[in-house]
Structures are given as C-alpha cells and as structure tokens.
Design a protein that fits this description.
The complex is a heterodimer of chains A (303) and B (386). Chain A has 303 residues and is α/β, with parallel strands linked by helices. Chain A is built from ten helices and 13 strands. In chain A, the strands form three sheets. In chain A, strands 5-6-7-3-8-9 form a six-stranded mixed sheet. Chain A has a four-stranded antiparallel sheet with strand order 11-12-10-13. In chain A, strands 2-1-4 form a three-stranded antiparallel sheet. In chain A, a hairpin with a 2-residue loop joins strand 11 (249-252) and strand 12 (255-260). With 386 residues, chain B is mostly helical. A four-stranded mixed sheet of chain B has the order 2-1-3-4, covered by helices on one side. In chain B, strand 1 (50-53), helix 3 (60-71) and strand 2 (75-76) form a beta-alpha-beta unit. The model of chain B has no long low-confidence stretch (mean pLDDT 87). Classes of the chains: A alpha/beta (303), B mainly alpha (386).
Chain lengths: 303, 386
Amino acid sequence: MPNAIYVKHLSFKYKNNNFYSLSDISLTIKANKCTGIIGPNGAGKSTFISALCGLLPSFEGQVFYDENQMQPLIDSVKEKVALVPQEYAFYPQLSVKQNLYYFLSLCVESKKRKEDKHAFISEILEQCVLTHVSHIKVSKLSGGYKRRLNIAIALVKQPKVLFLDEPTVGIDPESRAIIITLLEQFKAEGKTLLFTSHMLDEVEKVCDDIIILKDGKASLIEQTQQKNLLLSVEFEQEPSSTNFLSGYQKIAACKYQLLLTSPEELNSHLLQLSQLKVSIKNIHYSANSVEHMYKQGTTGNKL
Amino acid sequence: MILSSLNKEARIILSDIHSIGVLLILPIAFMLIMTFAMSEQGTDVINKTSVSFISENTDPISLAYKGYIKQQGFTLVENEGLADISIKLPSSFNNQILSGLAKGAIVVNIQANMTPQKKAAVIRLIQTALSKLRLHAFMLESGDLDEDLSLTEQIKEIENSTEVASYFTVVTQNKQTFTPILYSVPSWIVFGLYFIVLPVSITVINEKQNGTLIRLKTFPISTSQYFMSKFSAFYLLSILQLILLTLVGVFVVPVVTEQPDIFISHWGVYIIGSLFIILAANALAFFIASLVNSYEQAIVFGGGINILLAAISGFMVPIDILPEVMAKIATYSPLYWSAEIIRNLFSGKEFVDILPYLLKLLVFSLFVLSMAFYLFINKIRKLMWN
C-alpha cells in the first residue's frame, strides 16, 4: 500500500508553553485512504494538521509527501494538498460559480483555455450537487450548500490529499449524506483524505485508519485493528486468581476486556471461560468500535 | 489573477452599502456641504449680525453713528436681548466726538458664542463706522458738509468721499486657488480616496477570520503574489472611485452650489498626479490593514487616522486660519500633499508646480508600502489552522 504522508519524530512547542503540543510523533498515512484524526479538545489536532500542511513556522522532526524527501514541505503542500476549513472559507458576497472561478484563478492550472475552465467548473459543481444553485449569491444559501461549496473550492486545486475539518458539522441529514457520498467518491478517485470530526459514528463509517491524539501524542489505529473483536466479561465477584486473565484489561470492579483478532480466538477464549470455576455475571462480545478506541486512547489505556 | 481579484473586490464593495458610503457618498456630500458653507462665508455673516444701541442719545451725531453702523452691513434692532452686539455711547457723545472722547468710552458688548474670526471682523467695522462719523462731524464743523441736508444725504456724501475701493485693481497671482470650490472639492476627493483603508482592512480581517487566508496558503501562489494582486485590485478600484469623484467635483458641484466652474487644463498631468495619490492612499490602507486584527480596530484606527490627517491637513478648517504650528504640521501630511496636487491642477498649474508634492508622495508610498508588505507577509506566516 503506497503512503501519502510520512511523519518522523514530529515535535512542536508553542513559544510561551513549557510543554510539547506535539510530542515525537512518527507515523505514515496511507495513500488513497481516509484517515480520521480524533481526540479531545486541546489534544493537538489543529497543531498536527498545521504541521502536516506546512502551516507551522518551524517544528522538530520531518514531514514529507514523497518517499525520497526531495521536495520541501511547503512545495508539496501547494502542489498536492487542499484544505477544507470548518469555517466557510469563501466570499459570501459572490455567487457559487464566482467563488469557484476566483479560486481557480489562483491556481497555475487556470491558464488553461476558457472552455476547459467552464467544463472543469461545471464538473465540480455537478460532483458537489451545486449546479442548480451555481448562480445564487452564497450568503443566501443554507448551511448544507455552504459546506459543499467549501469542499468544491478545495477541488479546484485538483488535490491528491484533502484535509477536511468537521465537514458535516451543523447541517441537515440530507446534506450530510451528500457529503459522506462525496468523500467516498474522492476515495474511489484515489484521493487521500484526512478527516477530523467529533462524530465518532461518522468517523467509523468513512475512515479506514484513525489517528487518536492526546496530550500531543498520536496513536495510529489501522483498518485491520478496527475489525478486531472486543470481549467483555463481568464476574459475580473479583476472581481470587487472575492468572487466567492474562492479556485482559481491567476496566472496572469485576469487569475485564480483551481485544481479539479473529473469531477463532474468540471461540477459544469463550471455551476457556466456560471451563473456569468462577461465576460469570455477564459476558458479551462486539466489534471494536471507534468509540471504544477513542475512550481507550484518550484515557491513556492500551488500545 | 488581478482581474479576478478586481472582479471579486468590486463585487464585495458594491454589495456593502457602508463601503459605498465611505468611498463615494460621504466625500460627495462633504464636497457639496463644505462648498456651500464656504461660499456663504463673508457675504451674509455681517448682514446676519444684529446690533442694538443701549444709550438714550438722540443727538444728530449719535443718530449718524447708527446710520454708519447700518451702512457697514449690520442689522439694527431695538431689543438689546435679541442683538448679537450692543453698543453703549457716553452721554455727551455729541460733544466729545472731535475732542475729549475718553479712552474706552464706547462700550461694545459681544455675545460669547461669536467666533474669534467674526469678532475681529465686526470690531473692525464698528471702528470704521466711528472713523467715518468723526469725518462727518469734522466736515460739518468746517462747513464742508451742508447742515441743511438730511442725515441720510449727509451719510451718503461721506460714504462717497471715503469710497476708495474703485482706486484699486486687485490681481491674484496666477489663477485663484482659494475659491470655496477649489478648496473643498480637492480636499474631499482626497478624503474619499484615503478612506479605501476601511474596505481593505475589512476584507483582510474577513479573509483571516473565515479561514480563507489559511486556505490560500495552500494554493499555488506565494503570499507576495497574493499581496500584489490584492493591492493591484484595490488600486484599480481607487482609479474608478477617483474618476467618479472628479466627474462629480468638476461637473456637478459647481452647478449645484452655483460656484464658478473648475477646469482641468492638463489632463495628462492630472492623470499622473492621480496615480501617485492613489498609490499613497492604498499604501497607507494596506499598512493599516496589516496592523489591525478586528473590525473595531479597523474602524477606530483606519477611520480615525484618516479623519485626523484630514483635520490637520486643513480639510475641515482652511489652513490659512489654522494656528501657525498646525499649518506647519499640515505640510507634512500625505493628505495635504495629495489635495495640493489636485488643487494646483484645478487652478491650471503645470507639472513642475506639483513635482515637489509628487516626490514627497512617492517617498511616503514606497516606505509605507514596504512596511505594509513586511507586516502582511509576517501576519500570513503566523496563521495556523484553528
């Protein structure tokens, strides 16, 4: 699987802080996949994205978009990356189409023929389901259209990597569904998506891999780990010996959890539990949810 | 890119009534109001000033003084309470007029709200009236003024013999530059042009706050290219603004205010001068826009500096009546240099007459624009994803 972004020992400290906002992060982000970036407020998500987009004036470590590390970060960003901020980063006084033409004029690609430009803009409008409102002043549009325009503007750059900051926040379910479909289309087109959201069900639905940030540290959860099973066992009383619970994690009094990688492993553990001479109050298993991973990741427990 | 930028900025300004207000409506309104105000100055001021005599004297000399006061243009009123000025003559004024009039014998009371300029003018006229009265008394005594004539005829004779205006030919050097219209139209054109600071600042603040600048940092243009395209767009908009304000100032204001027409004798030089003025106005606007971080700062700092510079440049009060120190300060203001360029060209002067102002504006523009560029680049460099 090719990689899109390489991060090596990335650390960053704000001038007036005595702690690192990003602390020795090393990971790779896969190309043509959607990677979710989640974490509580203040975990360092914005700083992490700023670093990946070359928006930090300086930082320790390296971020690069090509394996050979030949291209300076900012050049790679200008060539390959587009941002979709959470704010409506466009001009509400202009129409949808005028906004797209203006941002297109800032790209080198805009030197192409006029007919090509029209065709290109029409294609973006159609893809983002904005054609029917293309002549309307943006200030008169609803939040759903504005969110889609925010994404459409990023597309004029024809980016290989797309950063999206909560692209579905504050919109109706219909618009949300259109945006989710759009993200799936982008993935199918081979774009690499990085996606931040506080809506974990959405992250679970859209993202392949997940980066959980907490206190400047990052944990990368790959797609395969998300398919793991989570076995939870609650005993009537605390077992006198916990040897048989090797590998389990205690989450509360009498409650233990174990992450399993296959159904066969689950069967084996269920059989082992049934043979024990301890009374089990409750037992259940489920797919390892993003919510569970988030909770584990942000409380400092092992994932 | 510059045309797209121009198109975008023009649409943003046209959709904002406040921007149109400060760039066009405000300066046009000021041009008309100030031209009206200045054209009325001096003609009706004395006529509107009322004088009452609080002494009971009914002798011919005291009555003649009232006649000379009226002759100076004042309006005589009976009720002392309604008068702007009240004059109290000594009881034996009639006998003392040629000799024996004590110093300070005539008491002139003036309302406290009268401006110093008007006060000085009315005192001069009251004193002139007394001089004419003395001549009147002297000529009566010497027999040169016929006693049998009515008081009105006597006053008329004295007025004829003291009339001196016809002996003078007043020549103003070159073409007159201090007519109301020549004073106010250039001032308010310049005032409007320098108000470009508000739309520029507000656009930059909007772009910063809604994440557009962050987005633009990832676009394949450099910050300096973006700065220059934005500067060029606003420069072109200022040219359109100047054309509109010049057309109104030259063709509409003289008609509406019934003032003499303005002629631009050297259109080529006017265009060159205008381009320098617009460069300075936009350089200052981008400098302030690079400094401010909120709408409040933009309005207070941007608008405030413009109004302050206009005030010290003699836009609100003619520079001739400013105290010497302030008049000196005015000559260091870019708004003053800009207004002088337009004023000189409206008065038919040549390129060489405006050259010193052009050079000052050029130095100012290059310095301020360099500062603006440096601050803008730094501001963008510090922007991060929020």
